[in-house]
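B., you asked whether I could sanity-check this one before it goes into the benchmark set. Here's the sequence:
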Amino acid sequence: MVSKLHPQVGIEPRKILILDSDRQSVSWLMNQLRQEGFLPVTGRAGANWFDNLKCLCPSLVLMNRRIPDDDGFSLIARIRTNKETEKLPIIFTCEHEDETDQVVAFRLGANDVAVKPFSAKILSARIRLQLGLANFDPDVQTRFPERFLQAGNLLFDFWAHQVLLGGEPLNLTPTEFLLLSELAKKQGSPMSREELAMAVGKPHSNGSLRHIDSHIKALRQKLGHSGLVRTIQRKGYQINPETTCPANTV
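And here's what the prediction gave me:
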């Protein structure tokens, strides 16, 4: 149900659904997003949330905890547990002091959190990143070496907490992102399951090691079983940066 159209000249712009009970914020967002080349719309949630989403067919939802006829946290959870909407990008907005709200939003499945006040340019860049519309500058890796890491045709962006596979974003869980990035940092050297468990903040136990195996299995599926993540007998796991993963496998 997510639109595939791009905000370019002659092509219908991406539709951004704004859900916020603050009319002043909604008015500002509507004006700024129009200027940035998007098509902002407003709507309601509540009991008919799914029908409203299906009717509007947004490319992304920009929402606050306080939304018309509903609670933002509850709506995030419903979007993420519905097969037709589970991959819909969500950016959650909140006040600077609402650290708990930020954490809860991420845990429920928000793709990003924008803390007020924010500029229209920064918000636009974050929306474009979530929609895969950002124009990548090849020199940016040189200017910000601490931000990016290349392994084969995988590109890690540690600031955005995202991995691109052949230019397409991978839908990874936080644990999968940590595991894959730790393996990539080793530049082909193997890591034991114990080391990986420590890297993701799991104390060494038989249960945590089994979880590592499960996450590696899920990673391999998302990478298209390309052989990028290999099992090294009696040593653990290794990433082979010379392996090229097939794009669009997820």
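One thing to flag: The two ends are 17 Å apart (CA to CA). Otherwise nothing jumped out at me.
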